[in-house]
Amino acid sequence: MEGWGELSYRVDQVFDWIYKKLIFDPMQMTNLPIPLREKLKNNFSFDLPKIVSKVKNMNTKKYLMELEDGEKIETILMKHSNRRTICVSTQVGCSFSCGFCATGLIGLRRNLHAEEIVSQILLLGKERKKMRKLVI
User: Fold this and answer.
1) DSSP-based three-state secondary structure for 96
2) What value does the mean pLDDT take over residues 30-43?
3) How is residue 136 annotated by DSSP?
4) Do residues 86 and 76 lie in contact, with contact meaning Cβ atoms separated by under 8 Å?
5) Residue 49 Cα distances to 36, 59, 68, 82, 121, angstroms
6) How far, rounded to the nearest angstrom, does the alpha carbon of residue 8 sit from its chain's CA centroid?
7) What is the per-residue pLDDT for 5?
8) How many angstroms from the chain centroid is the CA of residue 5?
9) Could you tell me the residue range of the domain that residue 33 belongs to?
10) Same structural domain for residues 71 and 124?
11) pTM recorded for the entire structure
């Protein structure tokens, strides 16, 4: 941010909005000056993958997600007795052809970019936050 003429603490403010509050629209980052919000909106993509489908099993919830280039990946939320874990995709497809796995049937298409991997975690955090608000 210093390269933009902003004070260094602005980075912490943006990280707080994204990683703690799970807000991805710079215009909603109300403690940032409006010119900075506009710069962020015009220079960065805050888009998350699109959830195509959700399949819930007893202790798992599979999310089929579509990336910006149209490729699809799966992210799985697993519920354990005392915690939850997330299995994130790091590739589109797989080079192994395991008989029990549909992902291997398409072959390895490409590795995911770091932001595509992180966005899976952020999206599930946003989903869980939304679900907690619905519980009465």
Assistant:
1) coil
2) 95
3) -
4) yes
5) 25, 23, 7, 28, 11
6) 25
7) 84
8) 29
9) 2-43
10) yes
11) 0.79
